[in-house]
Input
Amino acid sequence: MATTGVATAMLASTALSTGVSAQSASSIVVQGNRRIEADTVRSYFSTSPGEPLSAARVDEGIKAMYATGLFRDVRVSRQGGRLVVTVVENDVINRVVFEGNRRLKTEQLLNEIESRPRGTFSRSTVQSDVQRLYDVYRRSGRYDVEIVPKTIQQPNGRMDLVFEINEGRKASVRSINFVGNNHFGRQRLLDVMSTGETGLLSWIRSNDVYDADRLNADQEALRRLYLRSGFVDMRILSARADFDRAANAFTITIEIEEGPQYRIGSVDVQSNIRDVDGAMLRRAVRTQPGGVYNVELVDKSLEDVTLEVARRGYAFAQVRPRGERDPSTLTVNLVYVVEEGPRVYVERINIRGNTRTQDRVVRREFDMAEGDAYNRVLVDRAERRLKNLGFFKNVKITTEPGSAADRVIVNVDVEDQPTGQFSISGGFSTSDGFIAEASVEERNFLGRGQFVRLGGTLGQRTQGVNFSFTEPYLLDYRLSGGFDLFWRNSSVSNYQAFSSTSYGGTLRLGVPITEQFAVQLRYTGMMQRISLREDLRNCNNSYGDSLNQYTRADGRVVYLNSGSKEAADILAAGGKNDGALYNVGGVPTLNSPGNPLFNCLDDGEASVALRAINDKTRFISMLGYSLIYSNLDRAVNPSQGLFAELRQDVAGLGGNARFVRTTGEIRYYHDLTNDWILMLRGQAGNIFGLGSNKSTGGKLDAVDQFFMGPELVRGFQTAGIGPRDFASARAYGVDNRYADAIGGTNYWGVSAEVTFPLNFLPRDFGMRGALYADAGSVWGYNSTTQLGNLPVNLNDPLSGRSSSDHIVRSSVGVGLLWNSPFGPIRFDYSFVLSKASWDRTQYFRFSGGTRF
Output
């Protein structure tokens, strides 16, 4: 602009001595222009017909020309009776090049600057671009970056613009310190912050980079944490980030003033609308007297009361909370005031910034549409829902005046983020061995908000493929619908005497009743086939069969059908047929020398309950529902709240399985102090058979029953608790712990667990400790196959009987939870306090997996 001032001064002095003010725009001569038309230059000095070209007008024209960024220099002079405008045009940028950028991609940097190929070069624009690039690098944690712009002249008025970048080292967050926090421990405060500290795992994490915007968001998260816990006077006195240039690291210090914890005193609803009774709205309020003050419950109460008043026909009603603190009793008396608000309508809802997500996906999160009454509470609710979708990096809702005084325009600014994920999971557990899973999922399929997932599992004992699809807004209603297709195969293991192959599908429908309570309906159709190895199912003797006595080469006497493969093997190995004949029906007891139980189970026979369904293909047709309630503070690693689920499935709508299965679980979480989290859990289940068949009515196949272990009481093996078939154990010549599990029809279990931070370890290790106590039981064998059908004396208490007694199992233990870079891993060591003699224990257990 210094050049402009000189040119203007020269023009003014000339005008005073030569009468330039009499000139017109048509008498201007343009020199030096190459790409820009002369008439375009003259247009900056245009006047009305007959109006003289004054010095002030020339000055304005020169300023306008500089403002376009097209000219590097503009000079005005007088030659005879004409005005001469000599220009030097800015060069055209041929290309923009970044050199030295390794951490940030060229495409990302190009999106941040205004200089563009085929655009006009401007030094002021380049200076602004450099500053923006500095900001981008600082947001990524690089504070010692150096950026030098350079130009390389090319023919025909073109130039290359080059940004030479020395990225330097990443400035990390060395430590985060808190001052004044007494109620919450350091670990609990760090958990709600998105900023983390530099540690051993920083090479795979990016949250240890200092970002001022992120730190501001963290302060708000800390405030919400305290306000959820009753600390209404809480203040963040300062949040200071000190940069150590030598170490290239920040130290963040957050000073907190907690204040006392408040509880809720009285709760009331005051209605200033004549036809609305405040007492009738009381049921919509979630805050209760005596409870700890919780700002989230206050917000949800505002929403529920607003919706209730709107349902009564008062769409413009406004609800605001009024809290009166009583420092002497440390209580807050809450009053929800309902009053008629201004009659303002939503003229238009503008969705901006969504390059991928469809508009309707955003609009359906609003409980109001264009033309409806405007309500700020519902707008805040929609903003919270949009953020919870996980489709957007940023969500911001603002308003502006509409075309009339009673109209408002709602602007929704969003920024799409990647929602697809390819993952490979790997892990090992003491029950399933090594297992790997690969999956592809998309949470915002084609921008429609739909969830699609395809996955496959390959392990030592399990294999499978599954596909899932979910539409969260079925038929544009707040209903979730979807389906699952699956194929699974499980092999024989130490915990399971049979292999199983299943394939089928499930149809699902979810109906949200409230923000916290939902109902899910489902139908499952599944084909299932159970298989036993040949050596576990080759005993086919029945009551009354005659058996020959054979002496094996090792001298052992066995009793077999003379035409059986086992008999032929004995003869081939040097054994002999003794010629004696025995009838099973005449065998008095299990220990009798003539009892054939040892004969047919000599090579390890499976339970008759499992042999009865060998090679049996079943079609299971089940209709079920779930009732789910959850007010957990977060879905992963909750610290406060309650989760409860009741599930019931009825099989028998077609197919050849007939039963009713009911299971339930309830979990309660409570933050004790300093990030010590208490979890209480209860679970129970029952299954009973349906049908009127005389022989099998009301009975179950063994595999339909509950096989429980560490998921009920830790310290026991998979399927290590519950009824067993003792006959096979006696056949092996071992104790009853090695008998086949045959499942139970009932179970219950209770658990108490406290998890706590391991403060002597760096937080970056992601380790927590646990103390727990479990108790439970599985009982009630009820199968289509009676164990008494074994070819043994039913008077013998160990001859084919099941352990169906209701015996309480219990244990206590310690655990280590590791949020490792390879995924969550848990180690448990249990001490069994009570058990049945036939239960199978497993004191140490671990499991884990990851996505990488």
Remarks:
- Residues 2-18 form the longest helix (17 residues).
- The mean pLDDT is 79.
- The longest strand covers residues 517-531.
